[in-house]
């Protein structure tokens, strides 16, 4: 079985461009990817995978959950959960949603980033910031004044002195147990006798990406869609976040990060305290080559339009709720209609939380653990005939010279989950153009030195993806995200 792949209308792009390339080509065709930039974003992805794997091995996620359980059992003298203001009708908190929290979502390509950005208003009075959307981590954080070591971002840094609602969390506050204490340099860890000392935090994403600063609470403002379709603003008070004074890594263009993982610090989990266990959220990633004028939505709360989509499929989340990550269980992979012979243990999630497959908005491509990747790659190479293989374009393989070909045929690709659900991808979600119309490559890689497999954001383009926490399942439906 094959799909028709038109090189005229194809939007197979991954846009980890340099800022210089962005400025030169902003109004031109974005359907190509420089070799160097491709290598850069793959290196970032692989570093992230190792960090996620290490986080599982060291049980950092489980420790965070256990700390949260202990915190709730202790005195709530200091604890103030997030609240919604102004007051909402009772059904707003019980799961019988009459409204939604909605935020604008766009590709970060215009800022030279490979992630997706969400618009959030922080502080009182509220100021606009663009944060990276990350379902693979928990902490919400933003670059803060004074910024002693910060990366370049679009717009000014957040200044807590400009906000009436900013409050530091002290070392004595039980919530301080939820974050990792940094090393003595730059800030000092908490000391028992220092009652007024601000709670320091440290959060790492990989060898070159981390944030360090003060743990605090602040007011976040997002859009509210009323039942009649009108838009209004909704204020969320006492949201825990990191005010980062030392930040480094490949967070190009963003002001910080909005964590949507399953751990207690994430924005999703803090909203769950309001919605209850029936809480859900959904997003739709526009095409990677879209500029900042093209956007979609991230919806917190019930998405009735998505639930009514006849093409909506579900697969169950697996693994305990003590994990930060959203695990799904793969049974098999199909290439050109053929179910590949991949050992089932390749997809297994151990009792210690090692291995398995996660869906992650913060990783770009899809990465399969060995031997799955090699088997998938060989299957594509076996089924694709009549095109010259290009060997020089690393790290993606296989790559094909399609010079002079207006339309080529590529095998279908899909994932079958253990509960019977199937996720079929359009060809533009698993093949990518490199530098010119003359070369296309498989946009799937292996995850070396890690048993973890990841379904990244490139494969999620133009799918409305639902995280249904009430029923512990992932939903996905093919849509044109610009129309959501």
From TrEMBL:
Keywords: Aspartyl protease, Glycoprotein, Hydrolase, Protease, Signal. Residues 116-477 form the Peptidase A1 domain. One of its GO terms (biological process) is proteolysis. One of its GO terms (molecular function) is aspartic-type endopeptidase activity. The active site is at residues 134, 360. CDD domains: pepsin_A_like_plant (cd05476). Residues 1-21 form the signal peptide. This is Peptidase A1 domain-containing protein. It holds the Pfam family TAXi_C. PROSITE patterns: ASP_PROTEASE, PEPTIDASE_A1. Coiled coil: none annotated. InterPro entries: Aspartic_peptidase_A1, Aspartic_peptidase_AS, Pepsin-like_plant, PEPTIDASE_A1, Peptidase_aspartic_dom_sf, Plant_Aspart_Prot_A1, TAXi_C, TAXi_N. It comes from Vicia faba. Belongs to the peptidase A1 family.
């Amino acid at each position: 079985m094959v799909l028709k792949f038109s090189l005229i209308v194809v939007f197979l792009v991954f846009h980890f461009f340099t800022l210089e390339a962005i400025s030169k080509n902003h109004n031109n065709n974005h359907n190509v990817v420089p070799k160097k930039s491709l290598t850069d974003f793959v290196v970032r992805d692989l570093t992230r995978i190792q960090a996620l794997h290490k986080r599982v091995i060291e049980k950092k996620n489980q420790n965070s959950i256990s700390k949260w359980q202990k915190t709730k059992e202790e005195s709530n003298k200091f604890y103030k959960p997030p609240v919604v203001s102004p007051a909402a009708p009772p059904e707003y908190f019980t799961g019988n949603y009459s409204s939604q929290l909605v935020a604008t979502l766009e590709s970060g390509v215009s800022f030279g980033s490979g992630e997706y950005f969400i618009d959030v208003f922080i502080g009182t009075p509220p100021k606009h910031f663009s944060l990276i959307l990350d379902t693979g981590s928990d902490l919400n954080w933003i670059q803060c004044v004074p910024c002693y070591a910060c990366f370049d971002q679009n717009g000014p840094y957040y200044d807590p002195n400009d906000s009436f609602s900013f409050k530091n969390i002290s070392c004595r506050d039980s919530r301080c147990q939820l974050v990792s204490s940094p090393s003595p340099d730059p800030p000092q860890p908490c000391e028992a006798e220092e009652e007024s000392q601000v709670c320091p935090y440290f959060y790492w994403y990989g060898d070159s990406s981390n944030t360090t600063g003060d743990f605090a609470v602040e007011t976040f403002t997002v859009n509210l869609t009323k039942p009649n379709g009108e838009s209004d603003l909704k204020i969320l008070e006492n949201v825990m976040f990191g005010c980062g004074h030392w930040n480094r890594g490949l967070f190009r263009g963003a002001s910080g990060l909005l964590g949507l993982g399953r751990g207690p610090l994430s924005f999703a989990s803090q909203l769950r305290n309001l919605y209850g266990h029936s809480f859900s959220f959904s997003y739709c990633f526009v095409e990677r080559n879209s500029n900042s004028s093209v956007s979609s939505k991230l919806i917190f709360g019930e998405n009735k339009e998505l639930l009514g989509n006849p093409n909506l499929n579900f697969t169950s989340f697996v693994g305990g709720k003590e994990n930060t990550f959203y695990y799904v269980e793969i049974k098999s992979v199909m290439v050109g209609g053929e179910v590949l012979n991949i050992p089932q243990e390749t997809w297994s999630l151990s009792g210690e939380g090692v291995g398995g497959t996660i869906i992650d908005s913060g990783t770009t491509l899809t990465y399969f653990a060995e031997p799955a990747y090699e088997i998938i790659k060989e299957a594509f190479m076996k089924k694709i005939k009549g095109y010259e293989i290009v060997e020089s374009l690393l790290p993606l393989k296989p790559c094909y010279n399609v010079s002079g070909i207006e339309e080529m045929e590529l095998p279908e690709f899909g994932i079958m989950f253990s509960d019977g659900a199937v996720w079929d991808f359009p060809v533009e979600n698993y093949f990518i153009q490199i530098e010119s119309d003359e070369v296309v490559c498989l946009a799937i890689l292996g995850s070396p030195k890690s048993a973890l497999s990841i379904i990244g954001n490139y494969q999620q383009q133009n799918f409305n993806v639902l995280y249904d926490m009430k029923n512990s399942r992932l939903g996905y439906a093919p849509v044109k995200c610009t129309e959501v």
